[in-house]
């Protein structure tokens, strides 16, 4: 798993790590899809249920 640095979970402020096609919160276990701009910078994030 790869740490996503300054991006934190909006639900609990836990650290997010990249795992396969999604980001996983190490604190509450929530899953998110992170969208990036073409240059690799953060664009948006949405929660994945389940």
Radius of gyration: 10 Å
Strand content: over 45%
Query: Shape from CA axes?
Result: globular
Helix residue percentage: under 10%
- The average pLDDT is 85
Number of helices: 0
Low-confidence stretches: none
Spell out the helices and strands N to C.
Answer: EEEEE
N-end to C-end Cα span: 19 Å
The helix-and-strand class reads mainly beta
Main sheet overview: 5 strands, antiparallel
**Could you give the count of β-strands?**
5
Tally of separate domains: 1
Biggest sheet strand line-up: 1-2-3-4-5
Tags for this entry?
mainly beta; 50 residues; 58% strand
List the helices and strands and how they pair.
Blueprint: E1 2-8, E2 15-19, E3 22-25, E4 31-36, E5 42-48
Antiparallel strand pairs: 1-2, 2-3, 3-4, 4-5
What's a concise summary of this model?
The protein is an all-beta fold and 50 residues long. The protein has strands at 2-8, 15-19, 22-25, 31-36, 42-48.
Can you give a write-up of this model?
This protein starts with a strand and ends with a strand. It is 0% helix and 58% strand. It has a five-stranded antiparallel beta sheet with strand order 1-2-3-4-5, with no helix packed on it. The protein has no helices and five strands. The protein has one domain. By secondary structure, it is an all-beta fold.
């Amino acid at each position: 798993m790869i740490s996503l640095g300054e991006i934190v979970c909006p639900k609990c402020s836990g650290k997010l790590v990249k795992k396969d096609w999604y980001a996983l919160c190490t604190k509450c276990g929530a899953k998110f899809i992170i969208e990036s701009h073409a240059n690799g910078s953060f664009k948006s994030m949405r929660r994945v249920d389940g």
